[in-house]
Amino acid sequence: MKHLLTLLAISLLWWNMSLAQIENFALKKRATASSFTEVGGLKFPAGAVDGVKNGAYGFHTQRENNPWWQVDLGMEIAIERIVIYNRQDCCSERARTIQVFLSNDGVNFENAYQHNGSIFGGARDQKPLQVPLQFKKARFVRLQLNERNALHLDEVEVYGVMAHLANLALGKPATQSSTSAYSHDNDAQGGVDGVKNGLFGFHTDTERDPWWQVDLGGIAKLDKIFVFNRQDCCAERAETLAVAISADGVHFQNVANLSNTVFGGVKDNEPLRVFLDEQEYLARYVRVQLRDMNALHLDEIEVYGKMISQTPPAPVEEPVITTPPVFEPVPPITLFEHERFGGASINISSNWDASKNPKWNDRISSIKVPAGYKIVVYEHSLQKGASMTLSKDWTIAKGNFTFNDKISSIKIIETPQPKVAQPIAPVSEITGGTYYIVTSTNNKFLDQAVVNGPIILLDANAKESQQWEIAPAGDGYVHILSKLNNLFLDQYVEKGEAVASSGNGQANQQWLIQSSGNGFYTIASRANGKVLNYDITRSNLPVSLRNGSGAQQFKLISVSGTAAPITTPIPSAPIEIVNCSLTNQQFENAKRAISKQSFSEQKMTTAKLALKNRCVSLEQIRGFVELFAFDDQKLDFIKFAYNITEDKDEYYTLSDVFMSLLTKDDFTEFLQSKK
Q1: Which of 263, 385, 415, 622 suits 332 as a labelling partner, its CA being 20 to 30 A distant?
Q2: What DSSP letter does each residue of 73-100 carry, written as one string?
Q3: Over the stretch 548-573, which tens digit does the pLDDT of each residue have?
Q4: Please, is 569 exposed, middle or buried when counting C-beta atoms within 10 Å of its C-beta (0-12, 13-18, 19+)?
Q5: Does an H or E element contain 306, and which?
Q6: Helices marked H in 220-287
Q7: Is 228 exposed, middle or buried (0-12, 13-18, 19+ CB in 10 A)?
Q8: What is the pTM of this model?
Q9: Can you tell me the distance from the alpha carbon of 20 to that of 18, in angstroms, rounded to the nearest whole number?
Q10: What is the tens place of the pLDDT at every residue in 493-502?
């Protein structure tokens, strides 16, 4: 009977899981790998979760012992199955020893599957490896070979349902600022009806700052908010969207603010994702609102978290934390043996009596009295006998011989008010030279591998992409420039990470390098005081609040006059390369923004802004070139785009966009200068 009940419980669990929407949670999630290689073109770990299945490899590690690839699903998922699409243009047999490991923390992994050594297929023969996992729960999925080889796969799909967090907004009461001629009955509920089809679930009128909100019915600890845009039309109308939360429906806190940013939805799996897991967010109401004159229409809003109570908690008054002021030291009173402040001397800062220091009884001939003091000198000990009051310097040389060598006690009746010390302006401790910047925890080197993109962390290779020139920026701060192309180390505030960008003179490109002890340094942004921070789960470089940990300490190894640094390979954390490719929607948005400009200079400026921190393909470059009327303008753009494309080997094919033979020659000369 006991075994029967156990089987029944398992069956009910499977039945409940199967009723939920099973989806591929790996698609476009953060992927990492033990290494990557430039064989056949640079392929990053994200290539296995990009949704492209063509039989080629989506990523490729180096040949090494037990190479691995890993995806972070972003939350704990009850995994129903994993589908692994093998590379089929070559070398499919290399995946024959593949294993599947699962983890909830990215550190401790459990072996969930060991392949039997047979060769499996992929997209071309529709025979990928299917790994059933009966809804095992995990956040991290790692694939690893059980031998020395290179790991390269086409695509990895992880199907399951969310293990814990529920969509708290589903079916809850919703309201909106207005309705329109396009609205349905009970229009606001269309944003939380569970239907995601790329159409609008609700539609306000065209008005100033339209809004929609949902009442979760009680206070919840929020984890994430997903906003699915309308995709049949007019997605750009949501480019000024703000997301706010509130406990009482009156006082709202913004948790996301878009500025000219178009996001997707269910069709491209690119909804706006607002993650709230870095700190505790408690709220009952979630509101989305435009910040312009427009109509607000979205497909669906999902709010994930855990309910805490059905009534709002009493507001908690935040404690006011003040830093006590630092005062300058009060100068002492000085007693001198001779006139004109000469001879032996002693300092006092409180009442003084010769009975405790007989050597100085009847010995004083001058006194230095700093400003703010008032003292009384006495002829005898215990503040007795004849007296004289002083509030400035005294010496017998000014004709006052009455108390020469006759002072035996002193009473201080007024003291100076202490002055608040002026803070010392911070100054960078390294202001010049060329250096490798290396993490203190695992000897990873800051590398500008992605032009106009994020700074990543790689093993030492002595290339100019890992060499950084430090130059004064004024006021004690410094610029840190890539030796590769003179781009500036820049704090991309919106994403909270370090990138390489053209110089703009702003505080986000100015840094303070200060010793943290033992030969290590912290590197802090002038913009907000945040510091470079190595994160073991990422290969790009976050900028975070200072916490004193080793992850925020770096070695600076001089390049000038030294050989390239030699490091012993260390088992390292996952390497992540952020996918900087321009999506089709982003490509169209950028073209539209550029085409609105009337003059070539304005078009070029707009292009640089629109493509900041992006990578473009040759096909996209051709699309942008069509927006420029003359050959010299096209050449300027193509020169700019050279630094933000990965297709440099085929760049010469762009010669056919020019009409003039002279411009073609200039283009050829430019390419030769890059070799």
Answers
A1: 385
A2: EEEEEEEEEEEEEEP-SS-GGGGTTEEE
A3: 778 889 999 888 533 333 332 323 33
A4: exposed
A5: strand 298-309
A6: none
A7: buried
A8: 0.34
A9: 5
A10: 666 788 887 7
